[in-house]
Amino acid sequence: MIGTQPVTLITQNSQMRDILKRIDKIANSDTSVLLVGETGVGKEIFADYIHRISNRSLKSLVKIGLSALPPDLMASELFGYEKGSFTSAASSKKGLFELADSGSMFLDDIDDVPLEIQAKLLRVLESRELMRIGGMVNIPVNIRLISASKVNLNDLVEKNMFRSDLLYRINVITIEIPPLRERLDDLPLLVNYFIQRYAPKRMLKITDEALTYLLNYHWPGNVRELRNVVQRAVIFADKKITPEEIPANIKLNNPIEQIVKACSVCFSGNGMKFTEVINCLEYKLIQDALHKSGGNQSNAAKKLNLSLSTFRDKMKKFETYSPNCKNVVAENR
Ligand SMILES: Nc1ncnc2c1ncn2[C@@H]1O[C@H](COP(=O)(O)OP(=O)(O)OP(=O)(O)O)[C@@H](O)[C@H]1O
Ligand SMILES: [Mg+2]
Known about the structure:
With 333 residues, the protein is of the alpha/beta class. It contains 16 helices and 11 strands. Residues 43-44, 108, 148 line the site of magnesium ion.
């Protein structure tokens, strides 16, 4: 698919702004860029942005999603083929690398590329020329490569699922796009942007209560999931988007409500006393803070806004404690 749609990259988050500044600096060089981030964080929109501000912007940005393509098809899509090179090759066909010549190439889901295609990709990137399947001549390719991965490719290299020499080629610059839950200051901005996009004439607003639900959710599907929620909400909303238009799974995800719900299991199912449940919560907060601080007590105390001495007192209190919690039992099963 050749991308022609205008892109609007919405953000006010300082980490994202820093990323954009970095991109502005490298946009006009031909360095390969690897975009890493969870699903829906905006990797493709970043690829569009990089191409649009580069000096290749008048040429094509050619995109290919590499997940779910069988290796043979992947190779013929990428490198093209000559007439008669396989049974159904009735005529010769240019591959996407050739179509991207003088422009940019976006390899999406590069983490899903099988090793045999990785070897072919490496050859093209190293020699800057390719040979079509069944071809005899080398065809020069002049492209700016942008790749995207949902996972850290170093981990795949360690598991021998990704070639380290290919990784060096594609990640001259690596850009890690933070998940939405780590940049919640972008959320209200994105909500208003999507409201405008899906209901441009309605002057629709969102209530604080509804927005709070969205801010408390952990957004595993990131901006795409938020977009879908807003798109659906504007259809059902009257004058304002209220909690009624927020899907139940998002409202349930309110962390305080979840804790209350989880603890109620211990009250009703386990007959635990109020103080026991509170102790259990206290114990878990302390364990969690210690875990996240790698066992460092002063850092763990800081996380909980406790003085080190109070924190140590609490650790002492829980030295021999083991929570009688139904949820823990369920977790350990
Ligand atoms: N900062 C942003 N501003 C505006 N829209 C955004 C932003 N980030 C993501 N989107 C929108 O969210 C949707 C998902 O973004 P995109 O396709 O770029 O994510 P992705 O990281 O490529 O996801 P996947 O890994 O699933 O392919 C798109 O509709 C995109 O336009
Ligand atoms: Mg994508």
